[in-house]
């Protein structure tokens, strides 16, 4: 049974309720780091969690979480061209310990896709199998068995990498990304968790084509911010997706404080979502948060990462988001 903070914690705002739980940010570049940081939601403080370090340093993987006992760091790149991995690491929330979960290995080595969590399953959508081979492939891990398999009905509508990932309790959204060459995308695909089916959702398209936009999720809306756009470079743009109508609008009050790409995200499932790290030409440790009730973004110095990196694992939270 969900705890009270988790029951209301499908993202969004809840006046007077203190956020509980915590989240992890792991890996990243310029080196292929194994380091993991832990953000405590109640006081918005971040610290190194060395016992939760990845088993293998890597970048550009995906996270999903059962929002109760464990989160999973899936795939990523361990060694440059050809370094895409099937590896899935499991972090146990109660002990902050990480170990490889061999039964959860991806069906094929992938990096740079989008990660999504339903109440019962985790998904890795799209990405690449080599630096120049984008795919539409969907993998699904069942939390109760920790077994992963390819699910063809959930494949994306296009071959794409570097998407943002959002989701409600019923649906996941793969947003934007990069296709062949330097073609940035507006495309948003919607995954219906109950049927494992995915289709393009034109009303939810991004307001600006770009790669590497990132979450977080709210109760009724989700936000994707930042990223990189060909001929523009790094952007601070924030788009807001309303789940009930599958519509996306530009939400300028929630724009990042600095234009950057390669950021990670987490959500406290009550009142705020967080963006951390990334690069605007140089890697940073900076954290900022969007307040769901006001759709405004501000720096949160106490939540800054312990390292300056980009392209980390994010979205690994002990509360549902």
What does this protein look like?
The protein has 321 residues and is mainly beta. It has one domain: Kelch-type beta propeller (Neuraminidase, 6 Propeller). It is 1% helix and 36% strand. The protein has a 4-stranded antiparallel beta sheet, with no helix packed on it. A 4-stranded antiparallel beta sheet has the order 4-5-6-7, with no helix packed on it. Strands 8-9-12-13 form a 4-stranded antiparallel beta sheet, with no helix packed on it. Strand 12 and strand 13 form a beta hairpin. The longest helix has 4 residues. The radius of gyration is 17 Å and the shape is globular. The two termini are 16 Å apart. The N terminus is likely disordered.
Compact description:
The protein is mainly β and 321 residues long.
Notable features of this structure?
globular; 321 residues; four-stranded antiparallel beta sheet; 36% strand; Neuraminidase; mainly beta
Protein topology:
Blueprint: H1 4-7, E1 22-26, E2 36-40, E3 45-48, E4 62-65, E5 70-74, E6 88-92, E7 97-100, E8 114-117, E9 121-125, E10 128-130, E11 133-134, E12 138-142, E13 147-150, E14 164-167, E15 171-175, E16 188-192, E17 197-200, E18 221-225, E19 228-229, E20 233-234, E21 238-242, E22 247-250, E23 264-267, E24 272-276, E25 287-291, E26 296-299, E27 313-317
């Amino acid at each position: 049974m969900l705890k009270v903070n988790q029951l209301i914690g499908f993202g969004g705002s809840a006046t007077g309720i203190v956020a509980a739980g915590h989240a992890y940010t792991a890996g990243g570049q310029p080196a292929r780091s194994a380091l993991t940081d832990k953000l405590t939601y109640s006081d918005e403080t971040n610290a190194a969690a060395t016992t939760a370090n990845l088993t293998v340093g890597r970048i550009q993987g995906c996270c999903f979480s059962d929002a109760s006992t464990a989160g999973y760091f899936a795939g990523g790149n361990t060694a440059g061209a050809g370094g895409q991995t099937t590896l899935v690491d499991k972090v146990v929330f109660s002990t902050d310990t990480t170990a490889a979960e061999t039964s959860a290995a991806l069906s094929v080595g992938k990096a740079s896709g989008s990660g999504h969590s339903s109440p019962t399953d985790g998904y890795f959508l799209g990405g690449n199998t080599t630096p120049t081979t984008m795919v539409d492939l969907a993998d699904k891990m069942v939390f109760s068995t920790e077994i992963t398999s390819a699910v063809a009905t959930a494949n994306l509508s296009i071959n794409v990498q570097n998407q943002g990932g959002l989701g409600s309790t019923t649906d996941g959204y793969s947003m934007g990304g990069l296709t062949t060459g330097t073609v940035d995308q507006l495309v948003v695909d919607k995954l219906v968790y109950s049927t494992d089916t995915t289709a393009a959702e034109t009303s939810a398209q991004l307001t600006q084509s770009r790669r590497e936009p990132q979450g977080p999720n709210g109760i009724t809306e989700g936000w994707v911010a930042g990223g990189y756009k060909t001929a523009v470079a790094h952007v601070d743009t924030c788009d807001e997706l309303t789940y009930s109508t599958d519509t996306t609008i530009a939400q300028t009050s929630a724009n990042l404080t600095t234009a950057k790409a390669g950021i990670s995200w987490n959500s406290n499932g009550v009142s705020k979502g967080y963006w951390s790290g990334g690069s605007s030409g140089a890697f940073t440790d900076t954290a900022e948060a969007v307040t769901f009730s006001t759709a405004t973004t501000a720096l949160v110095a106490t939540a800054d990462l312990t390292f300056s990196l980009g392209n980390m694992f994010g979205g690994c939270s002990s509360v549902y988001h």
